[in-house]
Amino acid sequence: MIFGKGKASSTDVARTRVDDSLPTGVRIAGAWSWRILAITGVLAIFVFLIMELRIVVVPLMIATLLSALLVPLTQFLVRHRWPRWLAIVTTLTALITVIGGLVVLVVWQIRVGWPDLRDQSLVAWEGLKDFLLQSPLHLTEDQITQYGEELWTTIQRDSEVWVSGALSIGSSAGHFVAGLFLVIFATIIMLIDGRGIWNWVVRLFPQKAREAVNGSGLAGWGTLTNFVKVQIFVAAIDAVGIGLGAAILQLPLVVPIAIAVFLGSFVPIIGAVITGALAVFIALIYKDIVIALIMLGIVLLVQQVESHILQPLIMGNAVKVHPLAVVLAVAGGSYLAGIPGALFAVPVIATLNVMVGYIARGRWRLPPGQANPNEFGRPVITDSKRKDRA
């Protein structure tokens, strides 16, 4: 505080002397430290709020992913002179038909094959017990039963991280139904007036920040749209590869295996392997150890193709996130929120990465008369720029 012209208070003088007495490295480290602590605190509060409101947040995020998939199709139909309401209804009908058809197909296949699978599982278990009883390990039947119970307990305990996330957003039928209706309603609203919703969000920010927020949001939306398209393509390749391998080995329940791999592949890197283990298990039950090892080799081959070809060449260009960051994001998301966390980790990280990069590069500072290109080379022209041009 200044008491006279050119005179500083004794407090300011003392503070200046203290600052001057500290090494430069300590001052810089201190400045970075309190800022990092402040940012970490804000992020922690944000994650805490998301976890507490997960019953609402998870359906909204599912609706956002569905909208990123459906908006391009709706816009395509509108560009071909379809009425907007008809384009939206057609898009939603196609989505519901595809999902419903897959569910009906899986339920029908499992219902038909369940009795045989149950009988074969008992036969395989008895065969494994006989093998262990006659093996050099000299195990008794009580020991085998005890080890089997311990293995099942371990599997249940380790799977709690994944299952708890799914159960926490739908611990009852009422929660599930409410979440389903929220997904449908939010998806419809985003298809009808997604741009209006985004414009309202942009107007919440100060006038000087709106150009940056609007441009980064459009760039992030483009990345999210590309992610959904590419992820469906990658998941389809994984499903076809593992399903075709199961069909060649003449395994039962090929269709449920392929659909499980398709859905599991939406969790990058590890999803196809975890769901592919179902095919290995079925091969071990219905065939023998040799066929199971061959099926395991097929699953690992598909996973290697995804990790070394599809992810770097296709997914890498879509999300612009390093594979190590993808693995860490999936691990962290699954630890915090189970299955939903693993599912949404990569699209959230990819979208934030593009948005932050857009703002950091400062493309939104270009003069109003110039097109402000986003991450994909398309011009981003905000409302203020349109008015200036007019």
UniProtKB/TrEMBL annotation:
Domain of life: Bacteria
Record bears the keyword Zinc: no
Compartmental location: Cell membrane
An example Gene Ontology CC term for this record: plasma membrane
Topology of this chain in the membrane: Multi-pass membrane protein
Annotated InterPro entries: AI-2E-like
TM stretches of this protein: 32-51, 57-78, 85-110, 173-192, 232-251, 257-282, 289-305, 325-356
Keyword entries, A-Z: Cell membrane, Membrane, Transmembrane, Transmembrane helix, Transport
Mitochondrion recorded as keyword: no
GO biological processes: transmembrane transport
UniProt family annotation: Belongs to the autoinducer-2 exporter (AI-2E) (TC 2.A.86) family.
Name recorded for this polypeptide: AI-2E family transporter
Species of the source: Homoserinimonas hongtaonis
